[in-house]
Batch of 2 targets.
Target 1
Amino acid sequence: MIAKTPKPPYYAVIFTSNRTEGDLGYSEMAVEMEKLVEKQPGFLGFESARTEVGITVSYWQDLESIRNWKENEAHAIAREKGRKTWYQNYKVRIARVEHDYGFERENLKSQ
Amino acid sequence: MIAKTPKPPYYAVIFTSNRTEGDLGYSEMAVEMEKLVEKQPGFLGFESARTEVGITVSYWQDLESIRNWKENEAHAIAREKGRKTWYQNYKVRIARVEHDYGFERENLKSQ
């Protein structure tokens, strides 16, 4: 799913990662975090995919909302477990979305 | 691969898409575009993954570099073919990376 985000400006957190071998409780945590993040004030949506590298982009109203999510206790515990268990390496980039545009195939609507 | 990007600020183009069925020449174009983009001035790297949705994030020195790549003729033809053939829908977000940090597992180095 492509996230339905409002008119810019808003913020994106781009999380790119390489996993360790095996699930090791990762999937369960991911489902739990997804439920939690949706309740966060200022959360606008997210997109996620993994081929070799995994990319998750979450969208936020402002930097304060991102900071509040970072300080969420369950999220902090999950991140700690991530460094101990689930990730070989990762990179987090915090970016201000200044401009966006999209495309939708006509026949999606007419068929 | 996680892109090796310089110290912020720099720019990210977040391209999220849903494909149509079948390859239809997509893979060949993707390889060609990858070769081309690497020659573009101001191009810093990219990351790409697809599960259901596809996410490609390319990183750039500045907005002018992004604009120049958009005006590249072969790239413009590929985008046109994308709207005609390869994509159900997509969204492009242009964002200024303001802050980044990473993690790398210790045993990657010591083993």
Target 2
Amino acid sequence: MAEPTGRAFEVTGANLIAGRDSRAGSHTFYSVDPRTGEPGTVAFSSATREEVDAAACSAAEASKVLRALPTAKIGTLLRRIADRLDEYCPLLVEQAELDTGLSASALTREMQRTTWQFRAFAEVVESGWHLRPIIDLPDPDFIPVPRPDLRRMLAPVGPVAVFAASNVPFAFGVSGGDTASALAAGCAVVVKGHQSHPSTSELLARVISEAINADEAPKGMFSLLQGDQEDVGAALVTHPLIKAVGFTGSFRGGKALFDLAVRRSEPIVVYAEMGSTNPVFVTPAALDARAEQLGQAVADAITVGNGQFCTKPGVVAVPDGPARVRFEEALGQRLLASSIGPLLNQKIFHELESDLREIALIEGVTESDRGVDVEGALGFTPRVLVTSAGVLQEHSILREEHFGPVVILASYSNEEQLLELATAMPNSLTATIQAEDCDVSLVRDLEEIVTKKAGRIIYNGIPTGVAVTHAMQHGGPFPATTDSSSTSVGSSAIFRFLRPVTFQNYPEALLPPALQSDNPLHLERFVNGVMSADAIAKG
Amino acid sequence: MAEPTGRAFEVTGANLIAGRDSRAGSHTFYSVDPRTGEPGTVAFSSATREEVDAAACSAAEASKVLRALPTAKIGTLLRRIADRLDEYCPLLVEQAELDTGLSASALTREMQRTTWQFRAFAEVVESGWHLRPIIDLPDPDFIPVPRPDLRRMLAPVGPVAVFAASNVPFAFGVSGGDTASALAAGCAVVVKGHQSHPSTSELLARVISEAINADEAPKGMFSLLQGDQEDVGAALVTHPLIKAVGFTGSFRGGKALFDLAVRRSEPIVVYAEMGSTNPVFVTPAALDARAEQLGQAVADAITVGNGQFCTKPGVVAVPDGPARVRFEEALGQRLLASSIGPLLNQKIFHELESDLREIALIEGVTESDRGVDVEGALGFTPRVLVTSAGVLQEHSILREEHFGPVVILASYSNEEQLLELATAMPNSLTATIQAEDCDVSLVRDLEEIVTKKAGRIIYNGIPTGVAVTHAMQHGGPFPATTDSSSTSVGSSAIFRFLRPVTFQNYPEALLPPALQSDNPLHLERFVNGVMSADAIAKG
């Protein structure tokens, strides 16, 4: 393949199966420009059942090669993908801007984060940390029977289906964390692109495929399927060769895939991140001390990403009193100063409108502030709704996620009400506590409640912004995700797509390098209960 | 509670809820002596829905205390449970012998293993290894946005339901690995005892409760529910306060619980170990070299535990030829020399009889050997069936687990047939390769197939015997288990009942000890990408 020059890739509307264009089906769909509401000109070919099968079979074939590939080679490939994405960043940003209505600067930052993800996984893979080698040497005196030579490591689960999100087209899209972590784990990936930005999906897929091709890696390790109906995803999740699923999106979408996956004759695991309310609990002392600053921070948190982040705070619990007036004023003013873009697509737009219509019927909820009107077909004016903790507890719709630039302020009049409200909130990706030093006992009470309900607890910060690091946990108990034991962001995400295999009394020559006695990969291993990077003396 | 003297505990037939006897229901059932077929005299009270609720609520209450308990205290409790089990070992073995028909010597060994499990988990917990602390310190230059202070550790998932197995009454029973690992993780446990040995279950529960009581730990952290119908288990798995399930038993039982758990409004994870065929693949060179030894080893492997281990080899693939005659002769002779006991219960007995009746109708399957007849109502004569790889591939019942002292020998005539047979076998807990040094290429081909299908690969050994170590993997892809990413044996089992929580920008004073900068627990932590037991310099 020639080196890229200018606009090297065209959007053709094809599916990309193991590096090859495919448009077998007759059903097509079009993208919609969120600013104009106008459909695009490219007809995207929805994948057929046969195309799903071809992608899954290619992935299974590639898995055989991947399983035997040295982890260093996988690291090289991940870096090459990152390099190519960086190289084509202007082209990709230009396309994504048209598809999503997100700003070029936000998309450029998102691409930095995306390539960082690939490089961070490359580092993990090259270190071998993810293989978690554990070795127990033979012990004739072991109780109750002699212990054989046991050597355990993690191995790829097999082909992974990835469902890209609409709201973060690079970092949770075709080139997102699920794709990066699954490839890092040595799993082939079949991505179902989001119908909301098919052109961006196709370009990303072409860039990734080119990198795979240039690296002489098995082409079947990556495919993109397009589609605007549920049938493509359903066929993918129920395909017998698919062994795990990664998903980021709505509760309805994720739960539907989960239901399909657990009803297979061979059930498979679904890692669905389905968003959440991300409550913020503000203590009276915190509001007294920082009302204006908190108001501004909440305004920023509900408008960043045009209000469409899965960590957007949906409910902020604030104490009654004079500080609340200052807080709301600051929030309202900042909102008026914020400039945001349209919503991502018509579905999100209509669902948000419908949610707000339903909420408007509830007695005890008022609209306190509005941002500036947003232009365009899918422009949605930011909204601040105000209610009491009591009303919030009575109406489940007030405790649910409303995807877009909307926040509900729930006022409470004493600590008991605050703790009751925290208890009533559904499980979330995050929970945020805004407090002062004097609040130690209240914070402990809140923490006891929210630790059971969230994957990340933020102190005096805002939940939006999910750093890609080792210590990140992006995942909480259901309904935030379908598997709270894992994360979709950060290096631990790789463990989603690995499972342990133990080799018993295996001959040295046949052991995988990670488990060989002379430790050729120089890994830190857990040997007889102690971490060690040493070689094991031959018995 | 008084110190134990003699037969300190009586079997009363009650459920044991948070340390208290409970018999609210009217439905009772009786144990059956597997040697005589006679029912016992104690009427066991099946738990009612209210009793299930009481146990789950007590567990949830206890969880609050457990969450705050220092891990060192949990270690002490686990050791106390182990000490008490050792102390009462003669009483427990005597009872279990009556309940299960297993030999006193086997049961005594099993108790050694059981208390070892508790002590091994105590060691894990005391080391803090299971908390997996990961710390990323703030980084203002982080891309694309500054990184906050992020500190991640594992925390208990909440109350766990454990379903005890019939075949290993101590080590996979009320005092089994699931109970030990869940308690070690800091989770309260509600055990559903197996209806096949209710007296043993009750005694074990009384011993564990006494240890909890003596340690002044929250009584609700352990309850035992009895029952001989599906309703008790169903009520337990669908109880909203239960957050995870551990199960060891039949495919039908495990799959039924899985189906209930994933259909809850809040689905929960089920770790069901449902047994498997555990195929053994013998190369021509191995059979030539070790026919007699292999025949004896297979006879031992199918009779240990009266043939009722989940790792019993169900299918042995052997090459055609003269060595096979020697192998079968040795197997038959050893079988005649083996003395085994009756099956565990009528259900197992009738299912095995029914399986063999169905198999007897298949053309191309013959019975080659029988062991000695086993006395007693549930005595079952060990059986060796012989067929060809081709016939085995045609009839799925031949590839399934038959729980009891039965093995199917599948003969093959060339390597291609052997690999086809390996490919046709269902997923298993284990796969065993019997080979010689000259077989490197064949072993690699076999390994490529079985690595995808099993959790433990044994070279020149037998699958029975599951050492309780760090490197053990007891779990394979479905249908061997419902979650191949975890193990039910070995220290890694603790991770089933933990989930990650990240604290962002948390004040030192409020952080859990495992994440505090001065590292008061002296843990090995992953700090900024490097393992370190050092304290973190205050910024």
